[in-house]
Amino acid sequence: MISIGAVSKQTKLPTKTIRYYEQAGLIATPQRGANGYRFYNEQNVSELHFVKGARQAGFSVAQSKELLMLFRDKSRASSEVKKLTLAKITEIRQRIDALTAMVTKLEDLAEQCVGDENPDCSILQGLENNQLEP
After folding, report:
1. Is 130 exposed, middle or buried (0-12, 13-18, 19+ CB in 10 A)?
2. 48 touches 21 (CB < 8 A)
């Protein structure tokens, strides 16, 4: 059993994040000592590493929870994990496309801007006219 501080060092997660994941039901409630401090076991630490990896891959807390349930389930079908992952890939690609379009529109506005001492600015006009909307 290890303290939250030691878990934080092992996982490189802030203690606040560890408490949040506990509150969100991502990890089992750790045991508490007589002093009220949380003490974690190796399974808690393993699951925190897993959740950290899922979050770094772009999965939401809810999606991470779903993946963690599959991770815990040794009779899971890998097809479920693949389905979730492919859906995440599609979502990320859509965000990339939207961001790429936004960069292009900003580049166009910046190119149109004279950038001199004149107060007229095509960038501000473009923002006012919602030219960045998809």
Report:
1. exposed
2. yes
| Tens digits of pLDDT across the chain (134 residues) | 899 999 999 999 999 999 999 999 998 888 888 888 889 999 999 999 999 999 999 999 999 999 999 999 999 999 999 999 999 999 999 999 999 999 999 999 999 998 899 898 989 999 988 877 76
What CA–CA distance (Å, rounded) separates 63 from 55?
9
Q: Across the strands, what pairs with 2? A: 40
Give the C-alpha separation, 91 to 102, whole Å.
17
**Angle value at C-alpha 19, between 38 and 71, nearest 5 degrees:** 95
| pTM exceeding 0.85 | no
